[in-house]
Amino acid sequence: MKKVTSLRTAIFAGGCFWCTEAVFKNLDGVLEVMPGYTGGHTEHPTYEQVKTGETGHAEAVMMVYDAQRIGYDELLEVFFATHDPTQLNRQGNDIGTQYRSAVFYADEGQRETALQYIRFLEENKVFPRPIVTEVVPASVFWPAEDYHKNYLENHPENPYCQFVILPKLDKFRQRFSDKLKEE
User: Domain range for residue 59?
Assistant: First the structure.
């Protein structure tokens, strides 16, 4: 008998992966969030290599989610609401191709859903400028070094956490209170 599973993966790049990880870890139905690197040409990249912008990789997160509890379209909604998809190769003060906005799709369904969502956002003029988010096939995802995992929880005193991640997380929690994990 074949076992049916509702576990799926999604890979998004929306600037610094510390912020993206912190947001998605709080969503009900998201079981695991792993920061890492994808979309480039360097094998086994390190943070030191990726931050130069020379590897072609983006800082990204790969998440495992339960599709019976949260849909891919809901993940896209959170993704586009928690970063600026109109900034080319940057998010705020983080500048370079490694901070680009991208959806790395696993299959044709994810690709079409992402493109439809972007069309919806543009037709409804949700953003004042055109969306520059790449929608590209997923490639090898290289997990980040251990010190990047659970960064906010492990480094709450870090100024980046205090002044960038926590305010973003507060806004996210207010807007998506109905989608949060129960504490």
Answer: 7-179
Please give the pLDDT value at position 93: 85
CATH code where residue 143 lies: 3.30.1060.10
The number of folded domains in the chain is 1
Question: Residue type at 132?
Answer: V
pLDDT in tens, 4-53: 589 999 999 999 999 999 999 999 999 999 999 999 999 999 999 999 99
CA 23/CA 15 separation, integer angstroms? 12
Q: Which two tokens stand for residue 38?
A: 């994808």
The catalytic residue positions are 16
CA distance 60 to 62: 7
CA atoms of 84 and 143, how far apart (whole Å): 24
